[in-house]
Specification:
There is one protein chain. The protein has 2 helices and 17 strands. It has about 250 residues and is mainly β. The strands form 3 sheets. Strands 2, 3, 4, 6, 7, 8, 9, 11, 14, 15 and 17 form an 11-stranded mixed sheet that branches. A 3-stranded antiparallel sheet has the order 1-12-13, with no helix packed on it. It has a 3-stranded antiparallel sheet with strand order 5-16-10, with no helix packed on it. Helix 1 runs antiparallel to helix 2. It is globular and about 50 Å long.
């Protein structure tokens, strides 16, 4: 569904941006991202999942994305996919890139994008490599993880604590920006697809299709990956978790 990407080839895309060169309204983007489950790969016949947070606005009966309007945050359900080894992503939608992501979300990327729009965040621009490297831009997004251990104790900490920086041996310090990914039109049928749905939800290596990316140069090469899953800190594989997204600028 998604075209293969190479760093030395420019990507033809239509960014999911509000304003700028793309004349598109927030309402139109939200309608496309939320109201087209078949286009985003969701199964319209899927059984509704239990609602763990009835006090918040849930965006889909089958996907785990909630908007806490009062807390100004987005909550996404998922589970631990890997707890050690090199990684290119922090989080990907289930069924995509679990072999190189710490978290697999029970949601498409486009629904998370829609939730961030609903909070008022305006995406910036994805990374570009042609003719030179230009880092991704956008509002800084704080990513916090919440889970229960075997004793039922609830834990909450920054996602960075689960990511080992190979340059320092310590937890990653960088924060993510809301780059916004892009649409891709399939020439065979003319349908639009949100490219981050292919796996690029919260990235550690730079990708032009990333929804959240790091604003630093971070290689995709297996020999030069900057980050590992922090063994001993990441909960065991299969642990149910929640990923909480909020605008860093709103913090006190």
């Amino acid at each position: 569904m998604w075209p293969s990407l190479r760093r030395n080839r420019p990507l033809k895309r239509r960014p999911l941006r509000i304003g700028g060169v793309v004349a598109i309204t927030t309402a139109a983007v939200l309608a496309f991202l939320v109201l087209t489950p078949a286009a985003r790969g969701a199964d319209p016949a899927a059984e509704p999942a239990p609602d763990r947070h009835p006090e918040w606005k849930r965006l889909s009966p089958t996907e785990e994305v909630w908007i806490d309007a009062q807390g100004k945050r987005v909550v996404v359900g998922g589970e631990i996919a890997i707890d050690k080894g090199p990684i290119e992503y922090f989080a990907c939608p289930q069924g995509t890139k679990e072999h190189e992501s710490i978290v697999a979300t029970r949601s498409t990327a486009r629904l998370v994008h829609a939730a961030l729009l609903a909070l008022g965040l305006v995406p910036g621009k994805p990374v570009s490599f042609d003719p030179d490297y230009v880092a991704a831009t956008g509002p800084v997004v704080r990513v916090t993880m919440r889970w229960k251990d075997e004793d039922g104790t609830v834990h909450e900490l920054p996602a960075q604590d689960w990511i080992r920086d190979n340059r320092t041996g310590k937890p990653m310090q960088e924060q993510w920006v809301f780059a916004g990914s892009a649409f891709w039109t399939d020439p065979s049928d003319g349908k639009d697809y949100y490219q981050a749905d292919g796996g690029d939800l919260v990235c550690l290596s730079n990708f032009p299709t990333a929804m959240l990316d790091l604003p630093i140069e971070s290689s995709q090469s297996n020999q030069a990956l900057l980050f590992d899953a922090f063994e001993g800190r990441v909960p065991p594989r299969g642990t149910s978790v929640e990923m909480i997204l909020s605008a860093a600028a709103q913090e006190k």
